[in-house]
Amino acid sequence: MLSATEIQEIIPHRYPFLLVDRILELDPMKRAVGIKNVTMNEEFFQGHFPGKPIMPGVLLLEAMAQVGGVAMLYPEEYRGNLAYFVGMDRVKFRKPVVPGDQVRMVAEIIKIRSSMGKIWAQAFVDDQLVAEGEFLFALSAR
Q1: pLDDT above 90 for 79
Q2: With contact defined as beta carbons under 8 Å apart, do 65 and 85 qualify?
Q3: Does domain 4-141 match CATH 1.10.10.10?
């Protein structure tokens, strides 16, 4: 298990863009499971949407990708690298994420070849699938 502070030693994201609160399971270069506790205090709820707060889908995808990034960048030889999005495929949103939800994200590395990587990630609230997709990354040094 990794805390938010330990996650920041692996990926470069910081407030307000660190969207993973904890890593529950980690098998480096294979799989990671993380959580995001969604609260009404999130800045994006001020405008998305007033009176009907819904976590923006793009931020949910980013949170899922960050969990995959922890799995990819955890090994010492990858520490300090950046993982840039280069594409997404098969993305689906199944249900809105709202304040009070705890999102559990599962990211599995499909392959890494040279400086490119691909992960499959899913997000769940109360064991119900809320989003899924395939993410393509380019790895580069900072």
Answers
A1: no
A2: yes
A3: no
